[in-house]
Structure of Nicotinamide riboside transporter PnuC:
Amino acid sequence: MQDFLSQLYQQFLETSLLEWLATISGFICVFLAAKQNIWNWPISIISVSLYLYIFYQAKLYGDSTLQIYFLGTAVYGWYYWNRRAHSEEKPITSFNSKQLGLTIAIILLIAGILGYFLDHKTDSDVPYIDGFCTATSLVAQFLMTRKVLQNWLLWVFVDLCYIPLYIHKDLILTAILYIAFTIIAWDGYRDWRKSYLNFQ
């Protein structure tokens, strides 16, 4: 255990400036999203651009591709949240059990396709884990842009899944960031739920 902690500490000391910048901007982005602050989207553009490079270098090809998707959803989310702020629509919506079941089925389908592709077309050593985390993140991010309450529950789940994956890839600072993301996502769910119930 002491050797493991020593190794983690050494990797933490060797963390690149690029990963520091990606981590800090990522933390600010998720914190602002949980608070329903529209500035989360432009900061997200900075963070995902940095992580696109970092994950590609770590051979996390699913996560690397995911950053391109995040870039697109950041632009869309920025537009959609701004438009919704000036409309009469409810600020937050919620899924029923049927919609939630369909969402899970979509995640599993995408995860299977991505995992198979990464397993057969790349040199990834974690193709199905990478594919599953990527699929869950794809869906959670889209639900966030549409201000669907359950996006935060998906984020809590997938953030917990990412922590051991990033430790495995020696991305210690990013693993620590995802511990913080898990906490913020849970707080985000509670805050959004209160806002949702206030409009019922």
Q: What stands out?
A: The chain has one domain: 2-198. The CA atoms of residues 24 and 34 lie 16 Å apart.
